[in-house]
Amino acid sequence: MDDLTLSDAERLRYARHLSIPGVGEEGQLRLKRSSVLLIGTGGLGSPAALYLAAAGVGKLGLVDDDKVERSNLQRQILHGESGVGRPKLESAKERLREINPHIEVVCHESRFTPDNAEKLVAAYDLVIDGSDNFPTRFLSNDACYFARKPLVYGSIFRFEGQLTVFAPHLGGPCYRCMLPTMPPPGAAPSCAEAGVLGVLPGIIGTLQAMEAIKLLLDVGEVPLGKLLCYDALRTSFRTLRLSPDPACKLCSSEASLRSIRNPETLTDPSCTMPDIPSISVDELDARIRSGKPYVLIDVRQPEEHAEHSIPGGKLIPLDELPGRLEEIPRDGEVLVHCKAGGRSARAVSLMLESGIPGAINVAGGIDAWLKRSGT
Ligand SMILES: Nc1ncnc2c1ncn2[C@@H]1O[C@H](COP(=O)(O)OP(=O)(O)OP(=O)(O)O)[C@@H](O)[C@H]1O
Ligand SMILES: [Zn+2]
Fold first, then answer.
1. Domains in the chain and their CATH numbers?
2. End-to-end distance of the chain based on CA atoms, in angstroms?
3. pTM for this structure?
4. Signal peptide location in the record (predicted)?
5. Which is nearest to 58 in space by CA: 90, 91, 29, 89?
6. DSSP code of 326?
7. ipTM of the complex
8. Percent of the chain beyond pLDDT 70?
9. Ligand 1, pocket residues at CB < 6 Å
10. Residue 75 CA, closest ligand 1 atom number
């Protein structure tokens, strides 16, 4: 691909950009030479990727290891009916190619983890975080901080969304200045638990694409030190000030001196999930196969339990748990699972506090169980 010129086809395609002051031919070429890493191709990542592709950002890197579920289609508009059951990145790539064949789409079919974060971030000009969990957000923040790359942050909850850009090297705070310690697992319910109006990630993800394009073109002002809060029910946009935290573990001057010598901050144990006892689905399988009696509690909703369940699992939905603690044995192991590990982590915390010392979380929940058994 020639990065230095626009072909006739590209000139036609981007005609409405070429006439805007601030973009023009120079800006369009700039976009063509640019690259963006998108973490997650779900509710936020879908619209962001679609618009960046259409706008002609030359290289889009997608990182996600998930498969398309039918309940994703209400908002994850990169994927369609034909994608159900297939890897999200497959359907994303097809759709993006259809939107714009002039750009390169690179699929990193894995999770974004401490093992690959630095390498992935290094290969792109900026990062859009479209993930739905705190560990990933802390990690994208740290990796971008060390790489001195802007991070376009978005998050949503039911009818409310938030957006900002973290780029301490350009001024302003980092994510850890806003949220110094990682909330316990399950503190923020996932879309699966809380529900989300499908248009909302469309709005926030599109705003993320806009901020990415402004950063790439170096036009306007990006919201450094400002958290934009969108309330869909009141149709209001409010902006809160976010200041750098002088005690920030990552970006304060004292911490940054430490972290230059210690790039391990990416996996700093003080920044990982608080410890609750947990076992993997492989260990759970071994327990079941051993033939010894075991107690397994499923804290999902009855309709989720009816769809798929793990042998021997007793259903006690999380919202009923406080009133049904008596049903759970006080001695021995009590294995607890949900869909992905969030609700069960909260259930385990509650059980440990309520005198059930053997409560153990099944990490990854039934999603991991089904993946493992290839269902
Ligand atoms: N660390 C990570 N690395 C790569 N992708 C991630 C990471 N964390 C989250 N994601 C992806 O981000 C996307 C978030 O999407 P979204 O919040 O819309 O919901 P979902 O997890 O697909 O669906 P639901 O919550 O309804 O089950 C998912 O595709 C998920 O796989
Ligand atoms: Zn900070």
1. 34-271 (3.40.50.720), 278-372 (3.40.250.10)
2. 40
3. 0.74
4. none
5. 29
6. G
7. 0.98
8. 93
9. 39-43, 63-66, 71-72, 76, 88, 111-112, 130-133, 136, 190-192
10. 18
